[in-house]
Amino acid sequence: MHKYPVATSLVLVALQYLGAFLLPLFMIDIAYRFEGVGSRDELYLLGGGVTLAVAAAWLPALVCPPVTIVLLFTRFRLRAWIFSGGGLLVSIAVWLYAVSTFEQPVRLGG
Asked: What tens digit of pLDDT does each residue of 75-92 get?
């Protein structure tokens, strides 16, 4: 980490963007396993966890990389990777929590 701080930080930023792309796809895959969810239009039936899961994937990917890039140009260069790595871990942890809060859809009628 101390030997290649820029490379480490940039790899972690790339992993954040990869996570921002893949985590919503995994969430949709999990959502389709619930009975009553057959399309993306019906994701709202799973409750507020869907919104939280998408936010958990994208917000750290939008906030952490610019801050990391700025830190690379300051005296905190050797520790810039901590911000990206922490954002990545928080993103995954909150996403896992959000997916675990999905509710079984309730169908009325028919």
From this structure: 888 888 888 899 999 999
Q: Determine the Cα–Cα distance for residues 51 and 99; give it in Å rounded to an integer.
A: 10
| 20 vs 57: CA distance, rounded Å | 5
Kindly report the length of the chain: 110
Residues 104, 1: Cα–Cα separation, whole Å: 44
Question: Per-residue pLDDT tens for 20-76?
Answer: 999 999 999 999 999 888 888 888 889 999 999 999 999 999 998 899 989 989 888
DSSP category for residue 79: G
Domain ranges of the chain: 5-100
Q: How far apart are CA 2 and CA 17, in angstroms?
A: 23
Could you write out the DSSP letters of every residue in 55-106? HHHHHHHHHHHHHHHHHHTSTTGGGHHHHHHHHHHHHHHHHHHHHHT-----
